[in-house]
Design brief:
203 residues; 3-stranded parallel β-sheet; 6 helices; LysR family transcriptional regulator; transcription regulation; activator
């Protein structure tokens, strides 16, 4: 049976992939460059697999197998982190890291009011924020890189549990004299033939 890689070896592997440079990856992992390089070589020998291409390139170049192993390493590290976070959450709910993704059309308006209330109510909560488009946030949630999303529904989140926390009505801004300008409300169907200025998909 092939010996299992250690979490430290997996961190070296992911760090090298993320930073694309042995020195920067070593600093991110809080080790010397020689220690990180030796760790990658030891991992290759342990798995009997070529992770990096050997050649004149100054930047590390991953083999196709190496790229697959990087993604597996990410998943394994996320699973290990989840074990520790689950135990911590059982001791003190809403403490420790919470990785929140939010779309740009919500973040600037909601977060300035939400953040102070969260800090006061849950002082041990470590909130990490990422602002991005819906599709990329959904990918990060599915991959375990985010824990929670604030976005507009409906959204393609087949394996996630969703909860409606607020409703934000759409408002039609019409020029003076428009045939619908005097109406108290405008049905969506009435706008079907109109030229409209809208946000891009993903907001």
């Amino acid at each position: 049976m092939t010996p299992l890689p250690s979490p430290q070896q997996l961190r070296y592997l992911v760090g090298l992939a993320d930073h694309g440079h042995f020195g920067r990856a070593a600093r991110a992992c809080a080790v010397t460059q020689s220690t990180l390089s030796a760790g990658i070589i030891a991992l290759e020998r342990q798995l009997d697999a070529a992770i990096l291409e050997r050649g004149p390139a100054k930047r590390p170049v991953f083999t196709p197998l190496g790229l697959q192993l990087v993604e597996r390493a990410r998943q394994a590290l996320a699973a290990l982190a989840a074990v520790a976070e689950t135990a911590a959450a059982a001791r003190d709910p809403l403490s420790g890291p919470l990785r929140l993704g939010v779309i740009p059309t919500i973040g600037p308006f909601l977060l300035p009011r939400l953040m102070p209330a969260l800090r006061e109510a849950f002082p041990r909560l470590q909130l990490w924020l990422r602002e991005d488009m819906t599709d990329r946030l959904a990918d990060d949630l599915a991959a375990g890189r985010l824990d929670l999303l604030l976005l507009a529904l409906p959204a393609a989140l087949p394996e996630a549990e969703t909860l409606r926390v607020a409703e934000d009505p759409f408002i039609a801004a019409l020029p003076q004299g428009h045939r619908l300008a005097g109406e108290p409300s405008v049905p969506v169907a009435a706008l079907a033939s109109e030229r409209m200025l809208l946000l891009e998909d993903g907001h």
